[in-house]
Design a protein that fits this description.
The protein has 51 helices and 33 strands. It is an alpha+beta fold and 1434 residues long. The strands form eleven sheets. Strands 2-1-5-3-4 form a five-stranded mixed sheet, covered by helices on one side. Strands 11-12-15-14-24 form a five-stranded antiparallel sheet, with helices on both faces. It has a four-stranded antiparallel sheet with strand order 6-7-8-9, covered by helices on one side. Strand 7 and strand 8 form a beta hairpin. Helix 13 crosses helix 33, helix 27 packs across helix 29 and helix 41 packs antiparallel against helix 42. The chain is globular and about 100 Å long. The two termini are 38 Å apart.
Length: 1434
């Protein structure tokens, strides 16, 4: 994180605040900067290496420097080296800063150390890495998502910061790049239905990996005989060079030499004139001139940036493979045998993971090392799970148990099982759900960073060939506990300590485990409760009934079987309407009929009115493990807290007002709090506390009668939470989709958007129903399309899993291709498989066998479609939505068969050959057996968090929302540096961080640096998320803008066309974001193609947002501008008139955007009159060209910035109205204090005071100079969706319709520099007003309900179900979060009506009403946190 350009000047208030708000603490941040400052260059010599200079970090250990050296091209593939300084060998564990004499320019020599048998094999493994150097097709062959950016632009020198030197290499194949005349290809033009797959993965400009050797393997004379082993021979290696020469090589402690052995004679003596080389490649260069030339060429070729070549932590599936798979297969030299050594001893995955978790976390450096170790262990574990799944399912491992229904396997240190299909949970569907929920439960407990004493096993689930396996590391001490029972440890202190079936023997170990579980339950919002055991005895629990806690032989406490850790979803528990859970058998016989009736009525308590009749819920689901997502639990808690606050305020208002009740000290406030607690269902009578019992609605669990009241309350809360999904969360999601042009594009983005709101995918049918009943059905057609596609592909995957169970391995390719043809081609009649197999068998000289009777070959398209529709009806409650065949989906919903094929392959792991498929041909199979290249395991695993990097990223987002670009830039650089330290930037959140960093960098005027950062963001997105992931589309569009800003118009066109090609493949043309891309293409393309794209953008925006929306208005203006460039002023006036009408209705008459549109309208009119007059004067014989209005490059660039959302038009000028009102209130205060002054005096005084405060705040004064830096809206990168009305208010700089920045009016200059509640908030819309009482400020809100809190602005204290607060006016009356204010437009109101940020109880509000203390809201340079009676309170 080295930055030579320091922004923001020296100290100052903002700088101090940035250090305080740093997620890592001021000390650690200083440590980072100190680390950057201690980097210095040294010279490297020796070991046959050409001298070179190396930049080292002072905080490195010597072994870190050695590892960095070994990765350099100058040293690779050498190994077994040590380093010396001034003739002294350096200790590998020594700190570089502590070494005397090590200074900039010092000479460090490499020393060749003798080999051991192990280090010799390690060296050969490094040589193999070189020989297996990845080529352009290797990623596709291995099923990994490649990076395509290099085919558009290639930076030969990765060290260039700006990357201005470009060498474009275009493929000879059909690609998405522009033609030679600059026009885009026809398949990318609006309205085209052609979707060529060959253009998705163009041929790389990188040369193919050359051939080094014909063969490299262990010699037939290996292993060395005893007498030669005694003389130091480790291995005998056989090499066949490109020239055809066969050589035998001996590995010894000094290195490698050529011996005299042949295929017939063993002679280990060194060959004549054969040197002993420490590096194996040196000897190969001596033997083979061709190898030497090839190796030299390899080292001299252009090196790609590390982010493009370093392996990703996890496998990102590419559903397309190389065009010719057989030709891309390479000799991997596996016969050398060095890869087999690692498999001889199975790793202890649990011990490795727990050892990484137990690493110290005291300093930032220690936390980074811990996060990196956790990520490395987990990624290695996931790779082992993938390999183990293939090995197990392919039949190479025998089960360790004798249960054919639930076979278990041990392989590579993994315990893998299918899980038992219990009828209680719903058979096979319930088994799969239990495996998925177990992973979610492990993730939840793993995220409890403040609870290091409670451990979980490394866990993952993998789907391969229709089989789902659960993989875990081996739990320690299960067998050890039995062995140690005879020793000192008792059964209670060693082994199972907690669970419904555990022996309740008290011990210090059990008490410690219960303490951990109690703390975990508090963080996970779980209620401590009691259930009845098998003998009707009470069993207290902090978890679900299935969970077990044990003490392992390693002394660690583990929790297992956490698949029911989350509360049940009452919408899919219909049996609870008729079953009771709070009585035992003996007590039930004593119940009277009246009590039975009362119970039946209480069962339905919690459902909204007419809920059952309107929604048809609750209903039965195919399995009985429907649980609420933790995101929904948190949102529901916040919603209930908002209702709690509203109820308290209403009661106090009825009793005489909040201030009067708070200061009176009587019982009215206490009564109000108790009434509100009862109303919302709080577990406590005097504070808001909400937890959930995970064993409610579990048929096999009974609760004791003394907890009947608590159980009924829990049932009520769970019904309310279930109804909250239908009544609040789904409508909020659809409202977001109505306003956002970056709405979900495919199944992955749809799933992410739904899960962020806590909506399970089993609600897809209800989402579809709500859309179909909405008045905005047509505007939400792209969401309907995505929902239907997701329902279809998920139902198809379940049918496919069952289909594959009857397929043997030799028929997999034919069976998969047959399934896809039946799925996508209506009434498809394939050639009988038997005939084709007979032909192949004749060619191979074998009998055909009985291939005609295979069950899978008899499947027809109609049968398959009926199975899919039946599954969709059972799972998603949709009957006729899928129609009678694939053509119905195409015609009725606008779905593309290619998009369905992509979704299916990504979900099942199927990889297809890269070629263009014609999916409408009923006479010929569109997909043949040769097109199915592979089936890869699809793994779901634990996500290891990058704590400090994520905190820095969130802090940067907070600064960004406040408009503090300099502080946001520093924290984004810090976050990017931390991501690079932990995961080499190959992480989804690192991609979002780099994208936001590029935006902020661009807005600071550094377009070249923004382009360089965005290049990295694109590569990360392609490799980590997928080359056709929706986020990759967004990143390409942003890269196009930055490239255009740097004058690279051709590259900008390629990036935007690439984004459009991906958009057409993933979703199709009918999507709001296509309008964004088309608007950009209309601006950067020349000729008639620009107008074609702009017209299509206008059509889409009008269709999705309406004619009066700001997106549509801006597109109207762009089209008018393009028509002016063509001289068609009449049409331009028509479009600009529409734009002006929309701007006026949305923004108002006096808004700068409206005024700018008026000016442009006048310009068009004058130009049209001028042209008309000149034509009349010249007469009909005039041949002079019509004068045209052409946009400048700067204007086009500003418009690109607006279109892509880098900077947005202020939606309303409510902020100006608020500032005006605030100025009037200040003037009123001045008059009350006895200052009889005019408005001019107040204005002058305010301006002078605030300019001083602004200078102090900003340090460099940049924000004051810019009158508030514009914030960057980044809903996709921050993974927080907001309606466009909210995010569009993020810009303080108002960009006019023709792309120029319009400065605020001079008379409002002092208002621009005074901002209390956020420069980019529509305060009038949120109902915030400021009163000044006795020189202090009082913030009020209209109390409108907001379902989701502002992202990254509020740290909620409701996570554990206990929201404690000192009631200030901010919290009680507006329910907003803490108001952090800054001068110079640097403040933001964290509008979160459901979250309180202070501590204490509501009962404490009354007693603390007259407290004094902290300051949080900056008003005119002075801060105040206003209490109920207007005085400052701590």
């Amino acid at each position: 994180m080295k930055d030579k350009v320091k922004r923001g000047g020296g100290g100052g208030k903002n700088q101090a605040k940035a250090e305080v708000m740093s997620p890592t603490g001021g000390k650690d941040v200083a440590g980072i900067k100190q680390h950057d400052d201690t980097s210095f260059p040294v010279k490297i010599q020796g070991a046959g290496v050409e001298p070179f200079e190396l930049q080292i970090q002072g905080f490195w250990l010597v072994q870190d420097a050695v590892m960095h050296l070994l990765s350099r091209d100058e040293v690779c593939p050498r190994s077994n080296l040590s380093v010396s300084l001034a003739g002294t060998t350096l200790d590998p564990l020594a700190d570089l800063q502590s070494i005397k004499g090590l200074k900039p320019g010092a000479i460090i020599r490499l020393v060749e150390e003798p080999y051991t048998a192990g280090s010799a094999r390690f060296h050969l493994a490094r040589v193999l890495e070189l020989l297996r150097a990845s080529g352009p097709q290797d990623a596709l062959r291995e099923g990994r998502s490649p990076s395509i950016l290099e085919t558009l632009t290639h930076t030969p020198d990765a060290s260039l910061p700006n990357g201005k030197s470009l060498k474009r290499s275009l493929s000879n194949t059909k690609t998405e790049t522009t033609n030679q005349d600059g026009a885009p290809p026809e398949y990318l033009l609006p309205g085209s239905s052609e979707r060529p797959l060959m253009a998705l993965l163009p041929h790389s400009s990188q040369p193919e990996t050359p051939s080094y050797l014909k063969d490299l393997s262990l010699s037939c004379w290996n292993p060395a005989p005893g007498h030669r082993k005694m003389q130091g021979d480790f291995l005998y290696i056989t090499v066949v060079t490109i020239e055809g020469r066969r050589c035998d090589i001996t590995s010894c402690p000094k290195g490698f030499f050529l011996n005299r052995s042949t295929e017939e004679v063993f002679d280990p003596r060194p060959a004549q004139s054969s040197p002993v080389c420490h590096c194996f490649t040196e000897l190969l260069c001596h033997i083979s001139p061709a190898f030497k030339q090839t190796l030299t060429t390899l080292k001299n070729r252009t090196q790609l940036p590390p982010v493009e070549v370093m392996p990703t932590p996890y496998h990102t599936l590419s559903w397309l493979g190389p065009p010719c798979a057989s030709r891309t297969h390479k000799n991997t030299f596996n016969r050398l045998g060095v890869d087999e050594q690692s498999a001889t001893q199975a790793p202890d995955w649990n011990e490795e993971l727990q050892a990484a978790r137990d690493l110290p976390q005291g300093s930032l450096e220690e936390r980074l090392l811990r996060d990196k170790a956790l990520l490395e262990v987990n990624s290695a574990f996931v790779r082992a799970v993938m390999q183990g799944a293939e090995t197990v399912v392919d039949g190479f491992v025998e089960p360790v148990n004798g249960n054919p229904e639930d076979p278990a396997f041990l392989w590579g240190g993994l315990f893998m099982s299918k899980g038992a299909a219990s009828t209680i949970f719903g058979g096979d569907r319930g088994r799969r759900a239990a495996q998925r929920l177990e992973l979610q439960g492990v993730q939840a407990y793993s995220n409890l960073h403040k609870l290091p004493g409670l451990h979980t096993l490394p866990t993952a689930i993998v789907d391969y060939r229709g089989v789902r396996l659960s993989a875990q590391g081996l739990a320690p001490g299960l067998e050890g506990s039995e062995q140690e029972q005879d020793q000192e440890a008792s059964p209670a202190s060693r082994g199972l300590l907690y669970g419904a079936n555990a022996e309740c023997q008290e011990s210090p170990q059990r008490r410690r485990l219960l303490e951990y579980l109690a703390l975990a339950a508090k963080d996970l919002n779980l209620q401590r409760h009691t259930i009845l055991g098998p003998k009707n005895h009470n069993i207290p629990l902090f978890t679900s009934v299935d969970a077990q806690g044990l003490l392992g032989a390693d002394g660690r406490y583990y929790i297992l079987d956490v698949f029911r850790s989350f509360p049940a979803d009452a919408n899919f528990c219909p049996e609870v309407e008729t079953e009771g859970q709070t009585v035992t058998g003996e007590e039930e016989s004593n119940k009277s009929c009246e009590e039975d009736e009362e119970k039946k009525s209480c069962v339905k308590e919690g459902w909204p009115e007419n809920y059952l009749s309107d929604t048809g819920l609750p209903k039965r689901y195919p399995h009985r493990l429907c649980r609420l997502r933790p995101e929904l639990v948190q949102a529901f808690q916040q919603h209930k807290h908002w209702k709690f606050s509203q109820h308290v305020r209403e009661i106090l208002d009825q009793e005489g007002g909040f201030e009067e009740c708070a200061t009176a000290g009587d019982s009215r406030s206490t009564k109000a709090v108790r009434a509100a607690c009862k109303e919302v269902g709080s577990l406590s009578d005097f504070i808001f506390e909400m937890r959930f019992n995970p064993n409610i609605f579990c048929p096999e669990v009974s609760h004791p009668p003394h907890e009947s009241t608590a159980t009924k309350l829990q049932e009520r809360l769970l019904r309310e939470a279930a109804a909250f999904t239908i009544t609040h969360q789904i409508p909020a999601f659809l409202e977001y989709c109505l306003q956002c042009n970056e709405a979900p594009m495919d199944g992955v983005s749809l799933k992410k958007a739904l899960h962020q709101r806590g909506i399970n995918l089993r609600y897809l049918g209800f989402v579809n129903t709500i859309i179909s009943q909405s008045e905005h059905k047509e505007r939400l057609r792209h969401i309907t399309r995505s929902v239907i596609s997701e329902i279809f592909t998920r139902s198809t995957r379940r049918v496919f899993n069952s289909f594959l169970q009857g397929v043997d391995v030799p028929s997999l390719s034919a069976a998969v291709s047959h399934f896809l043809c039946c799925l996508l081609v209506p009434h498809f009649t394939p050639t009988p498989v038997g005939e084709e197999m007979k032909k192949k068998s004749r060619r191979r000289g074998r009998a055909a066998g009985t291939t005609e009777s295979t069950p899978w070959s008899t499947l027809t398209g109609a049968e398959l479609w009926n199975l899919v529709c039946q599954d969709a009806a059972e799972t998603y409650n949709i009957s006729d939505s899928l129609g009678s065949g694939p053509n119905h989906l195409v015609e009725h919903y606008g779905l593309q068969k290619l998009s369905l094929l992509r979704e299916f392959c990504l979900k099942t792991g199927v990889q297809l050959r890269l070629r263009d498929y014609v999916l409408d041909n009923q006479n010929k199979a569109p997909i043949g057996p040769d097109d199915v290249l592979n089936i890869f395991p699809v793994v779901k695993h634990i996500q290891m968090q990058t704590q400090d990097a994520s905190k820095a990223f969130c802090t940067a987002q907070n600064f960004l929302q406040k408009g503090l670009l300099d502080q946001a830039h520093e924290h984004l650089k810090e976050a990017a540096y931390l991501f690079s330290r932990v995961c080499d930037s190959l992480h989804p959140e690192a991609c979002y961080c780099h994208s936001m960093l590029a935006k902020v960098t661009y807005m600071q005027g550094k377009a070249a640096e923004a382009r360089s950062v965005q290049l990295k963001a694109v590569v990360i997105s392609e490799r980590v998320l997928g080359f056709d992931h929706p986020n990759t589309i967004l990143q390409y569009a942003l890269l196009g803008v930055y490239a255009y800003a740097g004058g690279e118009t051709a590259l900008a066109q390629k990036c935007l066309l690439r984004a459009r090609l991906l958009m057409l493949t993933v979703h199709g043309e009918d999507h709001p974001y296509t309008a964004t891309l088309d608007s950009c293409l209309g601006l950067v393309l020349t000729g008639d193609q620009g107008g074609l794209f702009l017209k299509n953008a206008l059509r889409l925006n009008t269709s999705f947002f309406g004619p009066s929306h700001i997106h549509t208005a801006f597109t109207q203006h762009l089209l008018a501008q393009w028509m002016c460039s063509k001289g068609d002023y009449r049409s331009a006036m028509t479009h600009e008139k529409e734009a002006l009408t929309a701007f006026t209705s949305v923004l108002g008459e006096d808004h700068a955007q409206t005024c700018s549109s008026k000016e442009f309208m006048c310009t068009i009119t004058k130009q049209a009159v001028k042209v008309e007059r000149s034509l009349r004067q010249a007469g009909a014989e005039c041949t002079e060209a019509v004068e045209c209005l052409t946009s400048t490059t700067d204007t086009v660039l500003e418009q690109l910035v607006l279109v892509t959302g880098i900077r947005s038009i202020t939606h309303k000028d409510g902020l100006q109205e608020y500032k005006k009102k605030h100025k009037e209130l200040k003037a009123a205060v001045a008059r009350e204090l006895g200052f009889i002054v005019s408005d001019d005096y107040v204005v002058t005084k305010l301006v002078n005071e605030e300019e001083k405060s602004s200078d102090q705040e900003t340090g460099s004064g940049k924000e004051a100079e810019d009158e508030g830096s514009p914030a960057v809206e980044n809903a996709s990168e921050s993974q927080q969706e907001k309606p466009a009305e909210e995010t569009s208010e993020k810009s303080a700089a108002i960009v006019s319709a023709n792309g120029h920045v319009v400065e605020p009016a001079k008379e409002n200059e002092h208002e621009e520099k005074t901002d209390v509640d956020g420069e980019d908030r529509d305060s009038a819309a949120s109902g915030v007003e400021v009163k000044v009482v006795n020189g202090e400020s009082e913030v009020k809100a209209a109390g409108e309900e907001t379902e989701t809190s502002a992202p990254n602005e509020v740290n909620s204290n409701t996570a554990n179900g206990e929201t404690e607060s000192d009631a200030t006016v901010d919290e009680v009356k507006s329910e907003s979060g803490e108001v952090n204010g800054e001068i110079n437009g640097a403040c933001s109101v964290a509008v979160s009506p459901t979250v309180l940020k202070s501590k204490g109880t509501w009962a404490d509000v009354v007693s603390k009403a007259n407290g004094a203390g902290d300051t949080n809201t900056a008003v005119n340079g002075e801060a105040a946190n206003v209490t109920a009676n207007g005085e400052a309170e701590e």
